[in-house]
């Protein structure tokens, strides 16, 4: 009896010692606990669950608070042109002042091929106004500039038809999804990745819309290098 009681006491003490360590180990896996520049990988539904949920506030927003398009590497081509060059199906000629001549592009939002750069917009996957609503209002001007010209994550900026981009405008997935049904899963997965990269919040309706759409999509791992 005495031996059994001692064994139980020792087991309880051991569990008490181990519990804080286990809890700490789990905590460091949360995206919110990671530092800018670190890379995390987790299933997209888990990533969505980790995003903060908060009501949106557009107070004070103007588009010019996100300076773009800049020529960060001073090669004569601004961010918009860099995206168009990178995503071209057929490479255009590059003329004076980075004018793009010829070439062809695929717009995944509406499943269209386009043969002129003038027919395309470069879309901020998470629109500038949506980013402002979700936390960017508290960033510095330089941080907002970096967001608006993010060439380091290929999901952040995407060349699409001007018509589809203007249909989307500032809407989140509650009110807009690409008309190309085959692209919708990739779109919402990339949306979650982009919000994770910048630690942006989601509003309750947006959270529900993303969750509902992702239930019919593969719960694929996303790899994100945190910008914040």
SSE topology sketch:
Blueprint: H1 2-27, E1 39-43, H2 44-50, H3 79-87, E2 93-94, E3 100-101, E4 105-107, E5 112-114, E6 120-124, H4 128-133, H5 141-148, E7 157-161, H6 162-168, H7 184-197, H8 204-214, E8 221-225
Antiparallel strand pairs: 1-8, 2-3, 4-5, 6-7
Could you walk me through the main structural features you see in this protein, from its secondary elements to its overall organization?
With 228 residues, this protein is of the alpha+beta class. Helix content is 39%, strand content 13%. It contains eight helices and eight strands. The protein has a two-stranded antiparallel sheet. It has a two-stranded antiparallel ribbon with strand order 2-3. Strand 4 (105-107) and strand 5 (112-114) form a beta hairpin. Helix 2 crosses helix 7 (184-197). The chain is globular and about 45 Å long. The N and C termini lie far apart (57 Å). Mean pLDDT is 89; it is low at 1-29.
């Amino acid at each position: 009896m005495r031996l059994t009681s001692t064994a139980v006491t020792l087991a309880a003490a051991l569990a008490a010692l181990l519990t804080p360590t286990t809890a700490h180990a789990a905590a460091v896996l949360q995206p919110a606990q990671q530092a800018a520049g670190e890379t995390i990988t987790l299933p997209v539904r888990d990533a969505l669950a980790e995003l903060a949920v908060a009501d949106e506030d557009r107070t004070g927003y103007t588009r010019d608070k996100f300076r773009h398009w800049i020529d960060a590497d001073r090669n004569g081509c601004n961010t918009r042109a860099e995206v168009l060059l990178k995503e071209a199906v057929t490479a255009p000629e590059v003329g004076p002042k980075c004018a793009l001549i010829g070439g062809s592009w695929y717009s995944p939002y509406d499943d269209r091929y386009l043969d002129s750069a003038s027919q395309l917009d470069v879309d901020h996957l998470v629109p500038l106004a949506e980013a402002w609503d979700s936390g960017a209002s508290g960033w510095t001007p330089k941080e907002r500039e970096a967001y608006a010209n993010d060439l380091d994550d290929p999901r952040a900026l995407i060349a699409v038809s001007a018509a589809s981009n203007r249909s989307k405008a500032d809407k989140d997935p509650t009110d807009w999804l690409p008309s190309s049904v085959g692209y919708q899963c990739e779109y919402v997965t990339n949306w979650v990745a982009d919000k994770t990269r910048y630690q942006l919040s989601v509003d309750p309706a947006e959270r529900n819309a993303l969750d509902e759409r992702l239930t019919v999509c593969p719960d694929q791992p996303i790899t994100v290098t945190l910008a914040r």
